[in-house]
Structures are given as structure tokens and as C-alpha cells.
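idk why but the lab printer keeps eating my pages so im just putting this in chat instead. protein + pyridoxal-5'-phosphate:
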Amino acid sequence: MSSTLDPAPTSTRSPDTSPRFRAFTPRDLDGLLQRVSLPPDERLALRAVAAVLPFRTNSYVVDELIDWTAVPDDPIFRLTFPQAEMLPESDLKQMTDLLRHEAPKAEVLRAAHEIRMRLNPHPSGQLDANVPVHEGRRLTGLQHKYPETVLVFPRQGQTCHAYCTYCFRWPQFVGESDLRIATDDIAATSAYLRAHPEVTSTLITGGDPMVMSTEVLRRYVEPLLEIDTVRSIRIGTKSLAFWPYRFLTDRDADDLLRLLEKVVASGRNLALMAHFTHPQELRPPAVRAAMRRVRDTGAVIRCQGPLVRGINDSAEAWAELWNETTALGAVPYYQFVERDTGPQGYFGVPLARCHQIFRDAYAQVSGLARTVRGPVMSAMPGKVCVDGTAEVAGEKVFVLHLIQARDPDLVGRPFFAAYDERATWFSDLKPAFGASRFLPGLDLV
Ligand SMILES: *Cc1c(COP(=O)(O)O)cnc(C)c1O
Ligand code: SF4
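predcted complex ->
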């Protein structure tokens, strides 16, 4: 196939100046924190958090995204570095005590495991409820929750270029194999999709599939092009925000773009589901150049991200994010509510406040950016959208609907929950008007 690719900008192309990916792990945390003045106790607390929840970042995030003069309030610092308040106080104390006394490694690991297990590692029943079965075998690297869409978790894609502190995928990263969802059985994936022609859409996700080399990614993508019923392929990724050189100067960047072109040429919709959290992620020239190159392949970039306390909990941040991504030719897709896992107590924003932020931002953007839906909770029954608050028959209520549902009959039916200004998740809600359920078929969870 001939390629219409523009070369990457020459300034970033020469071997001498090509940025090289450099990962930072908990071992580097102390060194990185030398850039700010923190009391020793706080430093220890951050190390304690990093012993429980995964910490990983890279040279691009540290040198080009974080504004170190604004730390500790800088949104990208808060997005990628541990914060003491992320763990319950007693857990934090236990962990800092262990580190302070240089406890044996096994003891630290055991304590970390116990704390993780209390953090609801797999919300919404994702480890059991969505796993498809084919010819009597559970396909544990796939999730099939909505009839038309299957999620594929490639084994080699279960990490990220850097980790978001609020990541609900954290069990994928902490080396606890019982908690991982992943497959490398590509033949079984294909067999399942052939047996299920109702699946028109596949979403390759992780972690981040873009951490895989193009050669490995190809092994997951190309077999999908042999299945006529698969009409769209999505790739969920944070790479545009955290490592745009994946599309510019990485050794196999050009091969990657050719792979994307090949999918488009097959007559399928190819979408990069780009995870953006804050407009600061869109400022470096590298991300803009990367978005140009991706769009030039014919792929669509759709943007989504969660609303998180202390990082992007303002209408201004979201309006700028939606306006800027739209200007760069991408399409705003979902605004998520922070899930009920990991440090949700720290990052969660009440639903009433989420909706207010959504509405205030939505009102500031042109119709082109109003493709976005939100705030959305990806919960057990499906994707629940908070449409707003209202007063009905003298009662203050939340108005909600399901954008996606396990049971397609529930999609698009408005329902009501009693207003609760502190509710942060679907499980906090009760049906309005003293009813026993939200809708026939949609019960309390
Ligand atoms: C969001 C989601 C999808 C995709 O839903 P769309 O509405 O098509 O974007 C599929 N599976 C799961 C489990 C999801 O959370
Ligand atoms: S980009 Fe996504 S998968 Fe990666 S750490 Fe952030 S939330 Fe998790």
C-alpha cells in the first residue's frame, strides 16, 4: 500500500534530537521530588502511597507537561504524582511506619496487598460480569457488556507511558496477577467475534495499547480486518497526552501510522479514543504534531476523560479542553465520573457538582464540541448519564438516563433519583418518590 504520510517534523526527527523515552518509577521518586521543597515527612508519605498505588511517569511528562513552579498545585503533577491523602489515614500511617523502620520487603508487600484489597480493585463486577464464554472457556482478556461492543485487553498493553493517580485500571499495574484482565489468545478473540456477528465494534484497550510496539499491535489489529461484521475499531490511549513521540519519532512511529491507514483503507471506522484530562496536556507542539499525523491517516480522534477533584474540577478547564481538542480536529466524546475504586474518596466529585461543571462548560462551547456526553458513570447496569436536577411533584430529584445498558431496552429512558448533594456514585442514589426501583428492570445496586 502506498502511503500519504507526511514526514515527521524535521526538528524532532534527527537521531541526535529525537526524544528518548525514559520511564521513572518509585525508585526515582525521591530524586524527582528534589525539584520542589517538601518537608521530609511529606516526602516519606508520598513514598508510602507509591508503595501501594502504582507510580510511573516519564521524561516528557516531567520536563514538558508539569510546570514545576506551580507544584504542588500543578494539575499534571497532581495527575501523575502520589498525594498523601490518597490513602485512608490509618493505612498511610501503617505504610509510613514500615518505610521509616525499613521493614523487610516482604512485610511491605504484604501490607500493600491488604490495603489494595480494601480499595475495591474491580468495581462494577468487571472481573466476572463481563467476561464472555466461548466453547466452554472463559475469555478473560475480553469484556462483552453491551451487545455491539467487545473490549480487548492485549497482554502486552497492560501498562501505560505514565500513570494517572486516579486510574481505575490500577490493578492491571501492581503485579498482582489475580487482578489482571489480559489476553494474548488472538485466535480465540477472532473465533468469538465470528460467532457473535452482533459485535460491530471492538475497542482495544488496557492499560494503554500504544505502549506495544507496532509489530505487536499489528497482531491484534490485523485479524480484526478479516472479520466482516467488525465495522469499527477503537484504540483507547493516553499516549497523545503522555508520549506524543509515539506518533512522531519512535523507531516504529511511521509503521504505526501505516497500520492506522490500513485499517481506514479497509473501510472501517478507526477511532483513537484519546484520554485527555487537562488542557495543559494540549499545549506542547509535539502533541499537536502527533494529532495532525494521526488525523492524516484518516483515523478520528475522540476525546474522553474523568472529572477529578483537584485536577480538572472547573468549568473553565473543561471548556478549554473541549474547545482546544475541537480546534485540533478531535471530537469530544465522554466526560466520566471518577469510579468507585482506588482513591475515589480523594478524587471523587459529588454528582451534583459534576453536573454543574459539565453544564457550565457545555454552555461555553460551540455546537461542534457538544458531541460530548456527561457526566457519565460507567456502572454495573451500564453508562449512566446525569442529565441534571429538577423539581418533580414537590421533590428535588436527579434526572438520569442510560446511554449504554447491559439490557438495551433500558437505553434512553429517563429516570429519577432522590437528590443527594453528597452522592458521588450510582450506588449512593435511591429512587425518587419512595419508589422501590429506578425503572422496571433497573433496581437499586
Ligand atoms: C463505554 C464502554 C463501551 C463503549 O460504549 P460506547 O457507548 O459505544 O462508547 C463498551 N464496553 C464497556 C464496558 C464500556 O464501559
Ligand atoms: S491513561 Fe488511563 S490507563 Fe493509563 S494510567 Fe491514566 S487512567 Fe490509567
